[in-house]
Specification:
By secondary structure, this protein is mainly beta. The chain has three helices and 16 strands. A hairpin with a 2-residue loop joins β7 and β8. It is globular, with a radius of gyration of 19 Å.
């Protein structure tokens, strides 16, 4: 494949996992499915993006520690990315993610991809109508808030909290992990907008779980 030919997400994901981040010389045209808030880390802040290309079923995560790039990205907008790095995914040594740094060139693509809205009600989620969609959105009322508990084995134990939600179709459990489980900004009776949660199954029971990309907004307070 020549250097002038654009790369696809499928091309990237089929590449061998590098031992250290590798610079990609090809251009990737991709749309931003979702964008995380800025998150504080030990030496500054970071954010992440979930990206897709012309094949909407092919997605990849991108991370960025350069906060100057945060305002360059908007959800549902298509961009041309050049001179990004491909690296081993955090927490998953067998998969890949992108690293956007000071040398990465970001420009709005001339042709914009059409992005499908992945909002579902709880009944649709429980009937598994989400198919193979990784990140889903929903709106629901908080009916119960569980206590934060510690799970796992020391020193790798993490915080976890169960939130129970309902809409006018059904009810479902929302599982919060790590920092999200320790401090919550809503209470029982509030209506929440949940963006970029993922489905999980425990004891044959479907639930939704927060990820780094999840955005929780209180739409209506009790």
């Amino acid at each position: 494949m020549s250097l002038s030919k654009p790369v696809t997400i499928a091309d990237i994901k089929s590449s061998p996992v590098p031992n250290s981040p590798q610079r990609c010389a090809k251009k990737l045209t991709c749309a931003v499915l979702n964008k995380s808030p800025l998150r504080p880390i030990k030496n500054g802040s970071m954010f992440s993006l979930n990206l897709c290309d012309k094949d909407p079923s092919s997605t990849i995560r991108a991370v960025c520690f350069n906060t100057d790039l945060f305002s360059n990205f908007e959800t549902d907008v298509t961009y041309d990315l050049e001179s990004f790095k491909v690296k081993k995914a955090f927490g998953n040594s067998s998969s890949l993610e992108l690293l956007l740094d000071n040398d990465t060139k970001v420009s709005t693509a001339a042709s914009q991809l059409k992005i499908t809205d992945h909002t579902f009600n709880i009944s649709q989620i429980l009937r598994e109508e989400t198919e193979n969609i990784r990140f889903i959105n929903l709106k629901a009322k908080v009916t119960s808030i569980g206590d934060s508990i510690s799970v796992g084995t020391y020193p790798d134990n993490k915080s976890k909290r169960s939130i129970f939600l309902a809409d006018n179709t059904e009810h479902i459990e929302l599982v919060l992990r790590r920092e999200r489980a320790e401090t919550i900004q809503f209470k029982e009776g509030d209506v929440l907008s949940l963006q970029n949660v993922v489905l999980s199954t425990f004891n044959n029971q479907l639930s939704v779980t927060s990820t780094f990309e999840t955005v929780i907004t209180t739409l209506m307070k009790k």
